[in-house]
């Protein structure tokens, strides 16, 4: 990874921590897949856009309805737990 890419990732992580008021280090708890039968959704202010079959890194289980996740483009957001499948 180049120095420029590394700095970009660090910046995105700092923005995530500020936006979601997340304290501490960002650790991946597990990986889950978006249900292939689910409808694709566009992201909102704090919601992550969903693509069928996409594998997401779980950062935090926030409550019964939502999970805080990161996708392959290092974007962060909430995902409904109902559309997530364990790997």
TrEMBL record:
Any GO CC annotation of this UniProt entry: plasma membrane
Classification via SUPFAM superfamilies: SH3-domain
Keyword terms: Phosphoprotein
Keyword Phosphoprotein listed: yes
Record keyword Methyltransferase present: no
Gene Ontology biological process terms in this record: integrin-mediated signaling pathway; protein localization to plasma membrane; T cell receptor signaling pathway
InterPro entries membership: FYB1/2-like (IPR043443), hSH3 (IPR029294), SH3-like_dom_sf (IPR036028)
One Pfam family recorded for the sequence: hSH3
Residue ranges of domain Helically-extended SH3 in the record: 16-85
Name of the featured protein: PRAM protein
Species this chain originates from: Sylvietta virens
Recorded name of the encoding gene: Pram1
């Amino acid at each position: 990874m180049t120095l420029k890419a590394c700095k970009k990732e660090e910046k995105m992580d700092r923005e995530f921590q500020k936006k979601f008021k997340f304290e501490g280090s960002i650790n991946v708890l597990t990986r889950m897949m978006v249900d292939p039968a689910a409808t694709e959704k566009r992201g909102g202010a704090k919601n992550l856009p969903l693509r069928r079959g996409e594998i997401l890194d779980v950062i935090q289980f926030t409550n019964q309805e939502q999970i805080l996740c990161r996708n392959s483009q290092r974007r962060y957001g909430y995902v409904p737990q109902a559309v997530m499948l364990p790997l």
